[in-house]
Write the structure tokens for this entry.
Amino acid sequence: MSELPKVGIISCSGEDCPGGNISREATLKVLHDLRPEETATICLPLFLAGGEGERGFAKRFPTITVDGCGKLCAAIGTTRFSNKPSVEINLEDYPDFSTLKTEEKWHIQESSSNLVEKLATDIANHVDKIRNTSE
Amino acid sequence: MSEAKKIVIPCSGIGKAFGTVSREATYQLTETGHQEEYRTVCLPLLVAGNQDAIDLLKKSKVYTIDGCPKKCATLSVERTGIDVTMEVMIPKVLAKNTDHKPGTVRDIGPNGVFLAKDIVNIILEEGSD
């Protein structure tokens, strides 16, 4: 397992976007619970604030971006400063997201927690696929 | 995007509890009692080069909250050519009240919420007109 490359997961933080909390929470779940040994992350703003080392992140790792809205900041920022992501996830593509009430999007509640689980599972599956194709 | 006089931007660092504390402080400011005066903008919009976000910041006072010396929030704003009105470095805030050491990035706990409140108070006091 350690022979395979780690997969970088870059989440939008979406402070002013209701999907930001869900994308961040799902990313943390993958990093800490589902695939802790197989994944790595970087703070998205480090692409702008950091140096060449940080900007090489998506060149070193195959990368999954997780965005909370259609502005796709994580995907655009990663592509702009580092490299094109292997997978770009947009929370708005999940039908369950559009049916959530505004409050459920902003604050993780039972229904939004279910979406966090689903999103995290999808991210983890993408991690596995990327690593398997690297074999 | 609506007009706003004061924009608070947290680093939201995903690797450390301070990143979550920065978000908590931002939401305390923008959702609880001060929303008429303060709002936030997604920091990733600056990374993506969103012109609407940059234009809004140009017209506003900008307060940044950073959780580590990499100062992502502050530097990301400054690299778009915008001056930061005030930057808050969380470790320095914690150093003044070590009882408010937060838990983890996923659960900052009550002490983390108190630390966020410390940050809010600093911005309200020192950032007032």
About this structure: Chain B has a mean pLDDT of 92. Residues 6-126 of chain B form a domain with the Rossmann fold fold (CATH 3.40.50).
